[in-house]
From TrEMBL, chain A:
Family: Belongs to the binding-protein-dependent transport system permease family. LivHM subfamily.
GO molecular function: transmembrane transporter activity
Organism in which the protein naturally occurs: Muricoccus nepalensis
Listed PANTHER family: ABC TRANSPORTER ATP-BINDING PROTEIN, BRANCHED-CHAIN AMINO ACID TRANSPORT SYSTEM PERMEASE PROTEIN LIVH
Protein name as annotated: Branched-chain amino acid ABC transporter permease
GO CC list: plasma membrane
UniProtKB keywords: Amino-acid transport, Cell membrane, Membrane, Transmembrane, Transmembrane helix, Transport
Membrane spanning stretches: 20-43, 50-70, 76-95, 102-121, 159-180, 209-228, 234-253
Biological process according to GO: amino acid transport
Location of the protein in the cell: Cell membrane
InterPro entries: ABC_transp_permease (IPR001851), BCAA_transport_permease (IPR052157)
From TrEMBL, chain B:
Family as reported in the entry's similarity comment: Belongs to the ABC transporter superfamily.
Transmembrane segments annotated in the record for this chain: none
Gene Ontology biological process terms from the UniProt entry: L-amino acid transport
Alphabetical keyword list: Amino-acid transport, ATP-binding, Nucleotide-binding, Transport
Species, as recorded: Muricoccus nepalensis
Gene3D superfamilies xrefs: P-loop containing nucleotide triphosphate hydrolases
Residue ranges of domain ABC transporter in the record: 2-224
One GO MF term attached to the UniProt entry: ATP binding
Full protein name: ATP-binding cassette domain-containing protein
Length: 311, 224
């Protein structure tokens, strides 16, 4: 063990840092997916498309800003702007004109509708941005690298991924927990999640809560995508792999769990990057191995509470 | 105060209400008696606008509210306590009681006045105020659900099978509360559903009997 560690310690440290960075992004998508499912009771297969489109949008806006000669720090504004534009346009359109028509339908039909939406968005994205990889490295270069001490080694790593991404994810986590527990709007969302009909009888406009929650979830996923743009080139299919990982995180954490989703994203993110580093052929299965192992022991998820039966 | 005229409604294509008409006078206590599946809960949900009507009208204070969206009915002063108490478990009792007042953006003075009225009427709620709703016993939960309906229901309060599942002593306490309700909230019209008529008979002004979605009889009790 000691010998292995001496040879591979730096690799392990690198894998951990990669894992933390990707966990931060997965969390942004999964937490929105979780919130949207809790409120709307619709599993949105197209949620990962917001991630992809947010990423492409960030690259486009960032490259445009550079082209017109805006200062380099403006590329950070490009990321935020891309997320808000993507979520605030697609979210309300999809909720109002598509999902609203299928709330009363069976979940199989809802799944088919959001799956169809996923395919439409995937093709739309190919029409707009093509199939060649798109990349936009501005913010990463701007932030430089930091030396991360790990087990006697020093690992130089880019500050964007090791500082900015985790900080944004933690701010999202803390902000969301605060919002849901301490503000009236947050309690209204929780109330609709728990019991839509009772909430309506209290005067809550559930339709409006659906619209705002869905849009908010879309913005979070798009922000995840926008933040990923500087570190990975965008290619067709990124939406699909993102939604699959997010499903794994939500299922493993348990529904309605925000802090749980953060910890699970960390488990799955690190599990995946450790696999990539040491046993690359296992990369694809590791998230599901973690998920299956957890669900075998706790079917309601790591942090979920068993749903009480309602007659 | 509250009137139903030939209300008809379907659930999943099957007729559940077939022309329900009833009248609740201000300050009246009206019972809706019927077996399980007779249409009691559906009648209350129809009044709250929680399901679409196939026909008929709902009037509140003489004005038609049939087309008013469900979430606006709380603002019109109709409070509803569903059968399963349906409290918001992670919230404290106080947060459960205040949620509708906050959602309706009532002025602070009005909110305080309503909360005070509920605490005076159901003193046990004041002592439970900081407890989480999920930790309450069945009987305590029913009291909180009644209190929450009273915060909203300045004109009418609908209680769905409030005695269901209550131990005899608690059922007695709940019946006492209902008896005192008229004195504490004199203008509120109260509609209570029940499958067991004995519990309600001594309290009510009018009893409607519902069967297969139709009102069979309406008896005005002499005690009124």
């Amino acid at each position: 063990m000691g010998e292995w560690f001496e040879q591979n310690g730096a690799l392990l440290g690198l894998a951990l840092l990669d894992g933390i960075a990707s966990a931060a992004l997965i969390f942004m998508v999964a937490v929105g997916l979780n919130l949207v499912f809790g409120v709307l009771r619709v599993l949105n297969v197209a949620h990962g498309s917001f991630f992809a489109i947010g990423g492409y949008m960030a690259a486009s806006i960032g490259l445009l800003m550079t082209a017109v000669g805006l200062p380099p720090w403006a590329s950070f504004a490009a990321l935020l702007l891309a997320a808000v534009v993507t979520g605030a346009i697609l979210g309300p359109l999809i909720e109002r004109f598509l999902l609203r028509r299928v709330y009363a339908e069976e979940s199989v039909l809802q799944l088919l509708v959001t799956f169809a939406l996923f395919m439409i968005l995937e093709d739309l994205q190919k029409i707009v941005w093509g199939v060649q990889p798109v990349s936009f490295g501005g913010p990463v270069a701007l932030m430089g690298t930091v030396d991360v001490p790990f087990a006697g080694d020093v690992i130089p790593y880019n500050a964007y991924q090791v500082i900015l991404l985790p900080v944004v994810a933690l701010l999202t986590l803390g902000g969301l927990a605060w919002f849901l527990r301490r503000t009236l709007a947050g309690r209204v969302i929780v109330a609709v999640t728990l019991d839509r009909e009772a909430a309506t009888a209290m005067g809550i406009d559930a339709g409006r809560v659906f619209l705002l929650t869905f849009t908010f979830g879309a913005v979070l996923a798009a922000l995840g995508g926008a933040l990923s743009a500087p570190t990975a080139s965008l290619v067709p299919g990124v939406g699909a792999s993102t939604i699959v990982l997010s499903f794994a995180v939500v299922a493993t954490a348990g529904l309605g769990q925000i802090e749980g989703a953060a910890l699970t994203a960390l488990m799955i993110g690190i599990g995946r990057s450790v696999a990539v580093t040491f046993e690359p052929e296992l990369e694809v299965v590791v998230p599901y191995l973690i998920m299956v192992a957890v669900l075998l022991l706790r079917p309601q998820g790591l942090f979920g509470v068993p749903e009480t039966r309602r007659i | 105060m509250l009137e139903l005229r030939a209300v008809a409604a379907d659930i999943a294509g099957a007729p559940v209400l077939r022309g329900v008409s009833m009248h609740l006078p201000p300050g009246g206590l009206v019972a809706l008696i019927g077996r399980n599946g007779a249409g009691k809960t559906t009648t209350l949900r129809a009044i709250m606008g929680l399901l679409p009507l196939r026909g008929g009208q709902v009037l509140l204070g003489g004005e038609e509210v049939t087309g008013v969206p469900a979430h606006h009915r709380a603002r019109l002063g109709v409070g509803y306590a569903p059968e399963e108490r349906r409290l918001f478990g992670p919230f404290s009792v106080r947060q459960n009681l205040l949620l509708p007042a906050e959602v309706l953006r009532l002025p602070a003075a009005e909110t305080a006045r309503r909360l005070e009225a509920v605490f005076t009427f159901l003193p046990e709620l004041a002592t439970l105020a900081d407890r989480r709703a999920a930790g309450l016993s069945g009987g305590q939960g029913k009291m909180v659900a009644l209190g929450r309906a009273l915060i909203v229901g300045t004109r009418a309060v609908l209680l769905d099978e409030p005695f269901q599942g209550l131990a005899p002593a608690l059922a007695q306490r709940y019946a006492d509360a209902l008896r005192g309700l008229h004195a504490a909230f004199p203008r509120v019209a109260l509609l209570v559903t029940e499958s067991n008529p004995q519990l309600l008979e001594p309290l009510v002004d009018t009893t409607y009997v519902i069967e297969r979605g139709e009102i069979l009889t309406a008896d005005a009790a002499t005690a009124a």
